[in-house]
Design brief:
This protein is an alpha/beta fold. It has one domain: Leucine-rich repeat, LRR (right-handed beta-alpha superhelix), CATH 3.80.10.10. About 40% of the residues lie in helices and about 5% in strands. It is built from six helices and five strands, in the order H-E-H-E-H-E-H-E-H-E-H. It has a five-stranded parallel sheet, with no helix packed on it. Strand 4, helix 5 (about 130-140) and strand 5 (about 150) form a beta-alpha-beta unit. Residues about 5-10 and about 190-200 have low confidence and may be disordered. Keywords: Cytoplasm, Cytoskeleton. One of its GO terms (biological process) is pointed-end actin filament capping.
């Protein structure tokens, strides 16, 4: 297993970890976004509580955990939650210590719910995934109809082209569904006409 020493990046983050985890655990409806980037003193116990709470959370849509020292030993809690969470749209796990096989495990978990739209997993300790891992990831991504953006570097052209093609297909479908939804909402019921388009009916005095 790769080491769990976070990469040093001198960017501060004043997020109160305990308070944020408490809100996440209680499914605070006001918490839509959560940023833990560059917080390097999160204990394994807090990681576990944080990641497990995602399973039942129904309000958080954006979670960023870049450069926090996340590694493979934290993945069981994370992947379990990803297979149950249906509201998270963006997940940023860049600049951590996740192994290539760990990346595959995360991507496999996303296939269970088909709700996450963007995931960022670039800049891990092992910068080269290898052909076998890249092809596995390509097959997994091609089976996911919800992903619109994947932050990963693919070295091999076949994998890169297939992933790009599939994400574009998902994006086109997403846009079509959004346009269809808007058109449907505009045609429900009869809209009120502006005054200059309304008709005035005059009755004959003899009637």
């Amino acid at each position: 297993m790769l080491g769990c020493i976070p990469m040093i990046i001198n960017l501060s983050n004043d997020t109160n970890v305990d308070e944020a985890i408490n809100k996440l655990t209680n499914d605070d409806p006001m918490m839509k976004e959560l940023n833990f980037n560059n917080i390097r003193n999160i204990s394994d116990e807090k990681f576990s509580t944080l990641l497990q709470s995602l399973s039942e959370n129904r309000h958080l849509e954006f979670l960023s955990m870049s450069n926090v020292g996340l590694c493979d030993r934290h993945l069981p809690d994370l992947t379990h939650s990803l297979t149950n969470n249906t509201t998270l749209k963006t997940l940023n796990l860049e600049t951590n210590n996740i192994s290539p096989s760990g990346i595959v495990t995360i991507m496999e978990a996303l296939v269970k719910t088909h709700t996450l739209e963007e995931i960022r997993l670039a800049n891990q300790r092992s910068s080269v995934l290898g052909n076998k891992i890249e092809m596995s990831l390509t097959t997994i991504i091609e089976s996911n109809p919800s992903l619109l953006r994947v932050g990963l570097h693919f070295e091999f052209n076949d994998a890169r082209n297939r992933v790009s093609k599939h994400l574009q297909k998902n994006l086109d479908t997403f846009r079509q569904q959004r346009v269809g939804h808007k058109m449907k909402s505009c045609t429900v019921g009869y809209p009120l006409l502006p005054p200059f388009m309304s008709l005035t009916v005059h009755q004959d005095e003899d009637d």
